[in-house]
Each structure stands twice: as C-alpha cells, then as structure tokens.
Input
Amino acid sequence: MSRIGRLPVAVPDSVQVAILGSDVTIKGPKGEMKRTFSPRINVAFDQEGKQIIVTRQNDEPAVRALHGTTRALIQNMVTGVSTGFTITLEIDGVGYRAEMDGTTLVLNLGYSHPIRIEPADGVSFETDAKTRQVRIMGHDREVLGQIAADIRKLRPPEPYLGKGIHYLGERIRRKAGKAGKGKGGKK
Output
C-alpha cells in the first residue's frame, strides 16, 4: 500500500468537509476549494477522529499511482483553506525592482516598459523593497506555483552574474566568464 496514501489527513476544527461521491469540498477561513477525484479512489470523512481517509479499490498500477496523489491533493486543500501557502521570489539585478500599485504587482525588469500583473481570485501579492522580494500568497497551491513560474519566466536568472528572478533559496548554476588575456592566444 502507498506510504503517503495510507496516512490519514487531519482536519482542523475551523475546516468543514463535504464528500459527495467523488466530489470533495473543503471550506475554511482562507477560502473554499472543490475538486473531483477518480471514482476508483474512495475518500471518506471520519467525524470522530476529524480526519479524511483515502483508500483504493484494487492494486492495478494506474489506481496505485492515483492513491498517493489523491491523498496529497486533499492534504494541500486542507492546508490551503486553513493556513494558506506562500511562495517567495527574489529579484537580483541593477535597476530591477517590484512595487505594488493597489493590488497590482508592477515589475521593472530592464525592459522598455513596466510589467503589470493582476492577481487571480484568492491570490495576493506583497513586496519588500529592502530585500527585493515578492511574496505570492493564497489558498490554492497549484495556482500559486503557476503564477510564480510565470513571473520567474519574465526574467529567468542568467548563469554568469545571477541577475534575474529566482525562488528564495534556489541555487543558480554559475558559469565561469571569459578566461582573460594571455591564456592560449598568440604570443
């Protein structure tokens, strides 16, 4: 049995769970999420233990693959509506900066124009001018990851100086620059 799939998902008191067939709806202080899962995976809510239990009907390879994935998605839903998620991006480079214009994120990344990014539903931005960081907050982990990837794609970090947008703590593989004069040239 799947090591991840067999673990129950603990549900905090502030979260409400509704399961109707293969539809799972979870409501909490940060928002509401609804998702439909495969009918080959059984999802049950234990009222006494306040936990969600995910089981599979058989041991076919396709069903086994869905077991752990379904449990992880439900865990992300519960965590998202109860505490939320945050992704932090760092901006490195002379003249590169991020600022807020109301709820809109405005990025100056060395292009001839500023780039404006409107937040999606349930997503908010926060910037810090001193550390040059952009925090993306929300309850849906998939949406946050996609928005962060789209922002990073606007100016990915380059390998020589490391300038660009990268995730907090991301290691950037650096390349050596030119070797310099006198090495291997004509004499």
Observations:
- The radius of gyration is 22 Å.
- The chain has a mean pLDDT of 91.
- The longest strand covers residues 85-92.
- The CA atoms of residues 58 and 64 lie 8 Å apart.
